[in-house]
Amino acid sequence: MNNTPEPDYTVTVNGLPVSVHSARVSAHPLNQVWPGYQRPLEQTELAAFASWDMAGPAEVQVTCARPIQEVRVRPTSRGIQPRIDGNQIRFTVSQPGQFTVEVNGSHHALHLFADPPETGTPDPQDPSVRYFGPGIHQPGLITLTSGQSLYLAGGAVVYGAVAAANATDIAITGRGILDGSKFDRMQLTGLVSLYACTGVRIEGITLRDPSGFTIVPAACQQVRIRSSASAKRSWRR
User: Fold this and answer.
1) For the segment 75-86, what is each residue's pLDDT rounded down to a tens digit?
2) What residue ranges do the domains of the chain occupy?
3) pLDDT (tens digit, 9 = 90+) per residue, 129-142?
4) What pLDDT does residue 87 have?
């Protein structure tokens, strides 16, 4: 189960607060091969993540609850030089992308998803759309059939999982979080389980704490998986 405390970071972008979430991830290096059961708690650690949409340069301010000795913002190829003032970190992001803020080393890092403005959001009243707005939702297993879409709005945390079989033209999109922590370990094959589906689009959402694998497209065709910025983002326990 994903029973994680509040993260030790707060974030503002252009002076506006941004929600920061926690995810329990595997610590590195590991000293035990995964033997088919939940990895012991001492082999995990907490990471934090936050996301926002941006059309132009953004001034990011991070406040850390821990004393700051050094900070790195990755990827280093972006050439971002953070400014440190006490327990605050400031830097400018010139364009959308995905970044990691490492305070005092790589452990307990803060991951930032700066997305371009969202376009093509569906109509909440469309009967073919399963729409989840901002807030906490607990729908359990969500089954999609041909022609249906699942949309998770920014600010939505949906405790559930998605399944579809022999379906065509389905989509799972948005800026929200799909969280599988309410399911027992290996209760489901994947947080998104697809079988013999054609024409699948998964885009923009954040996947957190699956009970098994993250996305399982078995015997599927024409599956497109991408984030709104660059690479798919997901968290596994």
Assistant:
1) 999 999 999 999
2) 9-115, 129-226
3) 999 999 999 999 99
4) 96
Fold of the domain spanning 9-115: Dex49a from penicillium minioluteum complex, domain 1 (2.60.350)
CATH class of this structure's domain 129-226: mainly beta
56, β-bridge pairs: none
Pairing verdict, β 9-13 and 16-18: antiparallel
Cis peptide before 7 (omega within 30 of 0): no
Is residue 111 within 8 Å of residue 98, measured between CB atoms?
A: yes
User: Residue 43: helix, strand or coil by DSSP?
Assistant: helix
User: Are β-strands 83-85 and 9-13 bridged in parallel, bridged antiparallel, or unpaired?
Assistant: unpaired
DSSP H/E element including 223: strand 221-226
Other beta carbons within 10 angstroms of residue 128's beta carbon come to 15
Rounded to the nearest 5°, which phi and psi values hold at 42? Answer: -70, -10
The β-bridge partners of 100 are 74, 111
127: its two tokens? 């009967």
pLDDT higher than 50, residue 233? no
Region for residue 222 given its phi and psi (left: phi exceeds 0; alpha: psi -120 to 50; beta: otherwise) = left
